[in-house]
Specification:
The chain is mostly helical. The protein is built from three helices and no strands.
Length: about 60
Protein backbone atom coordinates (compact mmCIF):
# COMPACT_ATOMS: atom_id res chain seq x y z
CA UNK A 1 0.00 0.00 0.00
CA UNK A 2 1.43 3.35 -0.98
CA UNK A 3 1.87 6.14 1.55
CA UNK A 4 -0.68 8.32 -0.25
CA UNK A 5 -3.34 5.62 -0.27
CA UNK A 6 -2.63 4.77 3.37
CA UNK A 7 -2.95 8.44 4.37
CA UNK A 8 -6.24 8.87 2.47
CA UNK A 9 -7.65 5.74 4.12
CA UNK A 10 -6.51 6.90 7.57
CA UNK A 11 -8.12 10.33 7.12
CA UNK A 12 -11.33 8.70 5.87
CA UNK A 13 -11.49 6.38 8.89
CA UNK A 14 -10.81 9.28 11.28
CA UNK A 15 -13.71 11.22 9.74
CA UNK A 16 -16.02 8.22 10.25
CA UNK A 17 -15.04 7.83 13.92
CA UNK A 18 -18.01 8.39 16.25
CA UNK A 19 -16.17 7.68 19.50
CA UNK A 20 -15.94 10.66 21.85
CA UNK A 21 -12.35 11.66 22.49
CA UNK A 22 -11.34 12.88 25.97
CA UNK A 23 -10.98 16.49 24.85
CA UNK A 24 -14.54 16.40 23.45
CA UNK A 25 -15.97 15.51 26.86
CA UNK A 26 -14.59 18.62 28.56
CA UNK A 27 -17.77 20.36 29.72
CA UNK A 28 -19.58 17.18 30.73
CA UNK A 29 -16.54 15.94 32.64
CA UNK A 30 -16.03 19.29 34.35
CA UNK A 31 -19.69 19.34 35.46
CA UNK A 32 -19.40 15.79 36.83
CA UNK A 33 -16.28 16.68 38.82
CA UNK A 34 -17.95 19.82 40.19
CA UNK A 35 -20.99 17.76 41.33
CA UNK A 36 -18.74 15.25 43.08
CA UNK A 37 -16.82 18.01 44.82
CA UNK A 38 -20.07 19.59 46.04
CA UNK A 39 -21.37 16.24 47.34
CA UNK A 40 -18.29 15.45 49.40
CA UNK A 41 -18.10 16.54 53.01
CA UNK A 42 -14.39 17.26 52.71
CA UNK A 43 -13.05 20.58 53.93
CA UNK A 44 -10.53 20.73 51.09
CA UNK A 45 -11.93 22.43 48.02
CA UNK A 46 -10.75 21.76 44.50
CA UNK A 47 -10.93 24.46 41.89
CA UNK A 48 -11.07 23.54 38.24
CA UNK A 49 -9.27 25.60 35.66
CA UNK A 50 -11.49 27.05 32.93
CA UNK A 51 -11.48 25.19 29.64
CA UNK A 52 -9.80 26.86 26.68
CA UNK A 53 -12.19 28.40 24.15
CA UNK A 54 -11.27 25.91 21.43
CA UNK A 55 -12.42 23.04 23.64
CA UNK A 56 -15.86 24.53 24.31
CA UNK A 57 -16.79 25.27 20.70
CA UNK A 58 -19.56 23.00 19.48
CA UNK A 59 -19.78 20.90 22.65
CA UNK A 60 -23.04 20.43 24.49
CA UNK A 61 -23.03 19.59 28.17
Amino acid sequence: MSKTRWMKKTIEEAANCTHKMPWERGLRRQAMIARRVEETQSTAKVSLAPLPAWMTEGISA
